[in-house]
């Protein structure tokens, strides 16, 4: 299982610092959606230039114009780009077409898909995405009674390649791997730690 750090900060200098602190312990550097919105697509270029040996994940969360938006992110240097799993099928297919053009990967972010999630995961997988991200966003995580378990259950059941994002910590990362995830995405557990490098290293050490 790969480890992906989500650089969920709003300024490029902060993202470059967090990337520098954590890169040696992670496989994938994710530009979070707020960072892309604040700094634009040039932020993708800057992170890739600083870490050419790492996979760079642009969390575009594209909801429309899939081919155009994915094309822009790939052209800026992204290796993986997200499209919303809840988007129109043609939006997903458009992003996949851009991925094929660039020889790169598209990930369907399943955030906000709650009802019949397994069925939608299987549908978007057939549209050619490389894997799905089964994801509870920050607002969903803040609701009382939130548990990552439902994400893991759906991953097991879906039978397609998947990543998990939803407040992964040192306590939950082993269960994420046991569920069969190919990537564990960690944002807050690394970003909010006193020592982000140590937090990333500790998470990586828990992956067998
Ligand atoms: O994608 C994310 C969220 O929607 C904000 O953009 C986060 O990067 C993702 O949820 C991982 O962060 P944590 O949940 O804090 O681990």
Description:
The chain is of the alpha/beta class and 208 residues long. It has one domain: Aldolase class I (TIM Barrel), CATH 3.20.20.70. 46% of the residues lie in helices and 20% in strands. It has eleven helices and eight strands. The chain has helices at 12-22, 33-39, 42-50, 66-75, 89-102, 117-126, 138-141, 149-158, 173-178, 188-191, 196-205, and strands spanning 2-7, 28-31, 55-62, 80-84, 105-109, 131-135, 162-165, 183-186. It has an eight-stranded parallel beta barrel, surrounded by eight helices. Strand 7 (162-165), helix 9 (173-178) and strand 8 form a beta-alpha-beta unit. Helix 1 (12-22) runs parallel beside helix 3 (42-50), helix 4 runs parallel beside helix 5 (89-102) and helix 6 packs across helix 8. The longest helix is centred in the middle third of the chain and has 14 residues, at 89-102. The N and C termini lie close together (8 Å). The mean pLDDT is 98. The structure holds ligand LJD2ZHX5. Ligand LJD2ZHX5 is lined by residues 6, 8, 32-34, 59, 137-138, 165-168, 185-189.
Radius of gyration: 16 Å
**Which cofactor or ligand species appear?**
ligand LJD2ZHX5
In terms of structural class, how would the helical and strand content be classed? alpha/beta
* CATH architecture group name: Alpha-Beta Barrel
Quaternary state of this entry equals single chain
The poorly predicted ranges are: none
CATH class: Alpha Beta
- Mean pLDDT comes to 98
Main β-sheet description: 8 strands, parallel, barrel
How do the helices and strands follow one another from N- to C-terminus? EHEHHEHEHEHEHHEHEHH
Number of helices: 11
Please give the alpha-carbon distance between the first and last residues.
8 Å
Overall number of structural domains: 1
* Proportion of helical residues: 40-55%
Strand content: 15-25%
Strand order of the largest sheet: 1-2-3-4-5-6-7-8
The CATH homologous superfamily corresponds to Aldolase class I
